[in-house]
Specification:
It contains eight helices and eight strands; from the N terminus they run βαβαβαβαββαβαβαα. Strands 1-8-7-6-5-4-3-2 form an eight-stranded parallel beta sheet. The two termini are about 15 Å apart. The protein binds D-xylitol-5-phosphate (DX5) and zinc ion (ZN). D-xylitol-5-phosphate binds next to strand 2 and helix 7.
Length: about 220
């Protein structure tokens, strides 16, 4: 089994010093930088958009793991691609043309994922198998960092791993990941975990990444 990848979410970063935070995320041994783009319509918060991703791209040595929580991602997908996203996940129910969005991402040679809210069945992903590179399972309802993991999502990790058995699709979990629950997630085969609070609000973020990878 390969080591789990850790993707700290910028929602928990110090935005006044975002460049330093980007450097820090690299230095503490994380694998990607999770960028939560929220439009205030799909989910109840407003964060940032393409200009921020572009600025991050100019600074980050790590891949930018972009999570679009926006309605009609088809309207902006080309711009999120052109500013330098490395992986892009979106919520298919927010799109009028989810297959077209995936196709646009794939045409650009980057990774496409679909994000599933806690109350959306893993079976929803079946129609995208053969097109996507990953499934982003939400461990909380989108909007804010620092929420508590919803326990029933644990079984969805196993269901998602079963769905992608034998094919090259990885499973990433987003929301509520801590040192107390990541062990079970790994036992169920999880490939990557977003960790906002668990890493960036920790006293020692480097130790936190090490612990999340080892426990
Ligand atoms: C929720 C976001 C998550 C979240 C993760 O809307 O998609 O990425 O910020 O933060 P933690 O790890 O603190 O739950
Ligand atoms: Zn996210």
């Amino acid at each position: 089994m390969t080591e789990i990848k850790i993707s700290p979410s910028l929602l928990s970063a110090d935005w006044m010093n975002i460049g330093d935070e980007v450097d820090k995320i690299f230095e503490i041994g994380a694998d990607m930088i999770h960028c939560d783009v929220i439009d205030g319509i799909f989910a109840p918060n407003i964060t940032f958009g393409m200009p921020m991703i572009s600025a991050l791209r100019g600074r980050s040595k790590l891949p930018l793991d972009v999570h679009l929580m926006i309605v009609e991602p088809e309207r902006y997908i080309d711009r999120f691609i052109s500013v330098g996203s490395d992986t892009i996940a979106f919520h298919p129910e927010a799109s009028k043309d989810p297959h077209g969005v995936i196709a646009a991402i794939k045409r650009a040679g980057i990774k496409a994922g679909i994000a599933l809210n806690p109350d959306i069945d893993v079976e929803t992903a079946r129609e995208f198998i053969g097109e996507i590179d990953y499934i982003l399972l939400m461990g909380v309802f989108p909007g804010f960092g620092g929420q508590k993991f919803i326990p029933y999502v644990m079984d969805k990790i196993s269901a998602a791993k079963a769905l992608v058995a034998g094919i090259d699709v990885y499973i990433e979990l987003d929301g509520g990941v801590t040192v107390d629950n990541i062990g079970e997630m790994k036992a169920r085969g999880l490939d990557a975990a977003v960790a906002g609070n668990a890493v960036l609000a920790a006293d020692n973020p480097k130790e936190a990444v090490k612990l999340l990878k080892s426990c």
